[in-house]
Amino acid sequence: MNLSTTAPPASTLLPADLAGQLKRAERRKRLFSISLTMPLLVFLVVIFLVPIAALLMRAVENPEVANTLGRTGAALAQWDRKTPPPDAAYAAVAQDLAAIQEQSDAGALARRLNSEVSGARSLVMNTYRALPFEQGLTTSQVRAHMLTIDPRWDDISYWQAIAKNSERWTPDYLLTAVDLQRNAQGEITRVPDDAAAFGRILLRTFQISAVVTLFALLLGYPLAYWLSTLTARQANMCMILVLVPFWTSILVRVAAWIVLLQSNGLVNRALMGIGLIDSPLALLFNRLGVIIAMVHILLPFMILPLYSVMKSVPPTYLRAAVSLGSSPLAAFFKVYVPQTYPGIGAGGLLVFILSIGYYVTPALLGGADDQMLSYYIAQYTNVNVNWGMACALGAVLLFTTLVLYAVYRRVVKSELSLG
């Protein structure tokens, strides 16, 4: 009698509904996992994604004229922007200005037009305070009355500014952020050389950030290497010293550098005391002071990625290279350094991205020619109250950061594929 039989499939040994119960259990586990991550997802959307979306939308939104001068925009829709505007446009702007309830809305309109044509602020506010006119005036009478209030209404440039900004969505802010503009006919042209500022400011921002990243790498690499050669207890103690600056406000550290770098500060007095210089060096309110303070503040962001990568590199590689006849210096640069490229890339990218967004340090330690793009974002936000321009400059910084990150990812991916 042959006792060997083929074992039935496992599924036939289970109850008919057990497979469904397993699927429901797996589904409950997935839903539970999603519910645990949902608060973090909501936090990221509310705190991170929504402000970025609002920034990008405000960079192309132009609500001041569209919200207040709707009739005027319609009256100027068919205007060729070369000949004097029709009388109906004068009547429309008088009706629109008279319909503005809050003086703050009239002020926002005046500031927006004044950014296009100098003098528009006083023109709009003078006319707004003189309204409303008498009832029953014809369009020609309204035109004559407005010219009596302010003869500048006969200047075609103010009407061109109104017609140009009558649409709610505009690329003007983004164009200005890259030294371009739309003329009165809507054509995109470069701004005059004496007005082209943001290109130089963006280049200056990249230059300062690149120099800060380079010096942070030159200082952070040997320090991270030394930390990686210590015992775990010693490395932890030294890492605490590296992280101590994180416990102090950036503003306090910048103020400390002002005390150190001033003409009668500790640095100049020490250099003069040992005889290296005869007179104080100019270390404050210039590019040098900005770079010194930024390197000090951002140095931990370079050390941490380097240290994490260096700890994973076995020290036996260097000893093996030396035992095979290589000099210690050649072994270090040909065997050890290539294995730390991921840390160099991560630290450099992190320091560079943080550098291009710096505002406080250049504002307090730098001169007029050392201010970075973030300074002008704050200027448009707090002083000029031009949120569109501030958001456009912020969008330029955001786009630059994304491009740098994409380049870093591509470089890392190519190195991994070659490895």
From TrEMBL:
Family: Belongs to the binding-protein-dependent transport system permease family. CysTW subfamily.
SUPFAM superfamilies with a match to the protein in the record: MetI-like (SSF161098)
TM ranges: 31-57, 206-227, 239-260, 290-310, 344-365, 385-408
Organism: Rhodoferax saidenbachensis
PROSITE patterns for this protein: ABC_TM1
Compartments, as annotated in UniProt: Cell membrane
Keywords: Cell membrane, Membrane, Transmembrane, Transmembrane helix, Transport
All copies of domain ABC transmembrane type-1, residue ranges: 202-408
InterPro entries for the chain: MetI-like, MetI-like_sf
Domain of life: Bacteria
Record membrane topology: Multi-pass membrane protein
Name by which UniProt lists this protein: Spermidine/putrescine transport system permease protein
